[in-house]
Amino acid sequence: MAGVIWIVALVLGTFTVAYLGYGRYLSQFVELDDSRETPAHKYQDGQEYVPAKKPVLLGHHYSSIAGGAPIVGPITAAFIWGWVPAVLWVAIGNPLLGAVHDFTSLSSSLRHEGKSIGYIIGEYVGDRGKNMLLWFAFLLVILVVAVFSLVIAVVFDAYPAAATAGIIYIALALVFGVWLYQLNLSFAIGTVIFVAGVFAAVFIGIEYPVAFVGDHAAGTIVVFGETAPGFIPELLGSANIGAWVITMLVYGGAASVLPVWILLQPRDYLSSFLLYTGVGGTILAVIVGTFITGMTATHPETGGELTFTIVQDAWYGFFGGGSPFAGDLPLMPLFPLLFVTIACGTISGFHSLVSSGTTAKQLDKETDARLIGYGGMLGEGLLAAVALSAVAVVAIPAGTGGIGLALPNFALGGGAILTALGVPFAVGEVFMALVLSAFLLTSMDTAVRLGRYMIEEVIGTPETSVQEAGANRYVNTSVIVVVAFFLLGSGRWEDLWTLFGGANQLLAAMALLTVTVWLANWDDTKQLISTGVPMALMVIITIAGLTWVSMYQVLGGRLLGITTPAETELLAQISAVVQVLIALTLIGLAVSLVWIGYGNIKAVRGIGEEPAVADGGEPDADAPDDD
After folding, report:
1. Quick one: angle between helices 117-125 and 350-357, nearest 10?
2. pLDDT digit string (tens) for 170-196?
3. Stated pTM of the model
4. 101, 147, 148, 562: which could join 556 in a potential S-S bond, CB 3.0 to 4.6 Å?
5. pLDDT digits (tens, 9 = 90+) for 483-528
6. What are the residues whose beta carbons fall under 8 Å from the beta carbon of 164, sequence distance 6 or more?
7. Angle at 390 between CA 66 and CA 443, to 5 degrees
8. Strand pairing partners for 612?
9. Measured between alpha carbons, how far is residue 621 from residues 112, 119, 322, 604 in Å?
């Protein structure tokens, strides 16, 4: 039997070679230059444009991009098609597609005043393309806020100790921000004190777990008792989950309007140590445990001794016929669904919003972009490898997928692996649950901030009272969180995850299209293969995936009853119709943007005789040829 050491070795090997080789080449290719002033210095305002030290910004960027998807996606894919195709897509696709996507998104934003990918493509193809991409991305942001707030709530409901620890580390971040930026105290000393506090929060959480409502284990602090107040809805059958969702949305809204130095920068920096320890510690535990210490944990269901041997099948078949969920799932072809199911662990459009939305506004030096952009994505790939290692150890087929499948496998499997370093199983399990929630928290509130940026970019300079209201940070933030809440209240987890995955991967293709257009306009000697080929692959894969899901699974199944039993309830039928319409809308937006971008590239590169496509689809002979 193979051991999980092979998963770790393959991913570490390919990532190391890619960073040293391809990452260096891309840095030279986009001509990173520390003598050039970055937007963080040029437009420093103490609110959004704030230069950050490289480790601080790496912590923010990594914490923001590494959400729950690189955990949920790989674990779900491993249960459907086997662990081998899942590992290969992460090990190969991440450095050649995802890391390129993140790095070039960040680099292009640096050369465009720290603006978003929507603004950048608008510079070359006009306002029509810009607004299409911004509204596309805005839809994704609302889905991210909704899905991630729900997943955080599920984690806190299952692990009240992690909820306590999460509250403590947010409070520590607020104090650390004052320590650094108001009191101007030592960065190094503060790091030691507050990082120690974050890890101490795990043990405090174990002693004083907290929940809002419901019947929980003895010793849990329950705020409202067993009966929920009338204003708290039940989500996924739990009022406690509903209460945590409301709390997370309020937190995300508040965090998004605060200056970045108060919470975002210090919180992400502190949480990065938690995340580095979770990812790095688990990988180290696999290596040490395989060759030296072994594992000291028992399987929570069978009671048998756990080892570092992979207990999950390597291959369940192209359609997942050998999967434990084969009887519960519709027909699931490996192509294209594997490449959509594993999104963020390999490539994610959301990352382009972070890179060009917040990170580019805080980059101190241009050469920092290689570690933060390219290296940060490789770090997310390591998180996916950790998730695959955890599920390979315990392989608990809980539920039928999603967070119900990912949470027990990640927390329990990760906790079992950490016993190789002497960490008690119970402590390791809570710690890994906190790691999962920390990833989600930082991505969720960053998404709210990004949504605010996009609304402000679409409005531009307000000219009417309605536009002034829309540009108001408190108003547009409230719109985002309220819409996300109602989306959660009316939808199912499976529906939200499918929409999120499809929109996320299509946005990655659109971000790659944007940087390809930028490179084509910058200099006609720039090769377009590094971004153009990944863009084409993601367009084909994602459109095929959305078409399969919307036509075969939803239309053919839930609506017509041909492939699966049809929905009988009116609300479920309406939901299915909306899913089909959203999928087709996303596909239409993507195809239109590709056509507009291709027209611009044809013109500036002298391909054929067609002029560039400008705003409204009209020819533009004066397309820009520089950045």
Report:
1. 90
2. 899 999 999 988 898 998 999 999 999
3. 0.85
4. 562
5. 888 777 654 565 566 677 778 888 999 999 999 999 999 998 999 9
6. 201, 204, 205, 208, 209, 210, 221
7. 15
8. 620
9. 22, 20, 57, 9
